[in-house]
Model the fold of this input.
Amino acid sequence: MSAAARLDRRQAIARLLARRTDLLVATGLGSPTYDVAAAGDHERNFYLWGAMGGAAMTGLGLALARPSEPVLVVTGDGEMLMGMGSFATIAQSAPANLTVVVIDNELYGETGAQETHTATGADLAGIARACGIASADTIDDNAGLDRLAETLHTIAGGPRVAVLKVARTESAKVLVTRDGAHNKARFRLALGLPAD
Amino acid sequence: MNDAPPLDAKAWQDEIFDVLRASAVRQVSYVPDGGHARLIARVQTDPDMHAISLTTEEEGIAQCAGAWLGGNRSALLMQSSGVGNCINMLSMIEICRMPLLMLVTMRGEWGEFNAWQVPMGTRTEAALQMSGIHCIRAERSEEVADTVRHAASMAFDGGSALAVLLSQRLIGAKVFVEGGTAI
Done:
């Protein structure tokens, strides 16, 4: 795939989140957290700053707990590679309200831009499909993003995996709270739950 | 001391199930262990519970965190060998001050035939404590239900992160057969 055909990660995430209402979002550590923050901090966002490999499973626990609301995980290729077995676990539980978006720049962006395994052929959408997630696609244009945006705000048709092929350009780090306890409390209060 | 599994092995597993139900636990995730087999089977047939089979134990830490964010109580089942897989993921529980209830069946500590179970079994409690998880042990079948009940209360009412370590004495050493002779 040529670099010209790749999406801009910031614009892509902003496009997916533009019409959000009741969407619950969990992010993987690193750039996906900054990308979601850049689209606007939100009380229904939960940002991981560590626990690498845990984003998709955080989404699974959340999706099973909140079947009436759409749940979106936004993570990166490096983070998803560390928790690839999660695809098999998610496929088995099969929550219809869960979408996992993997922003794939084929790099470990936080640690010096070393290439990940997707740079040499690992196909995360294909792996998800092979694990039993039927709706798993690679997206590299706005038309694909718009089709994804139509479905990820619904509670039907999941679980879905969408791998966004994005350019390797680095964007500004948009910081949000690193206080996990505060973020948890804010998130739960937004759902009408006790803070702790 | 008799090394054979106690005759009431099924009873204490059923009692754990009853405690989880009474504690309104809605998600139960696991990497299977023989000691948890009956409990897993009970969870799988309960319409009010999600039984979540994990490919590796640390997935369950993140799933329990997500469940709590959404208002569900969870329990995470594993054997002692899986505890080592969880250490980095447990940082999420500490930094977010989330409750956690782990039920860990112990291997490598009581008549263990398979020496490969001993290194992790020997270090399970220390690894959990190092990771900020409070440990409570249950050695005998008659104390299992009460131990799990109080652990669930500390987790879900008190917000603590803890593990109940279920002694291999409860479960019995696995019997291996070599050349047709039990050894």
Summary: Helices of chain A lie at 9-17, 31-38, 55-65, 77-82, 85-93, 124-130, 142-152, 180-190. The interface with chain B takes residues 24, 26, 46, 48, 50-66, 83, 85-86, 88-89, 92-93, 180-181, 183-184, 187-188, 191, 193, 196 of chain A (CB under 8 Å). The mean pLDDT of chain A is 95.
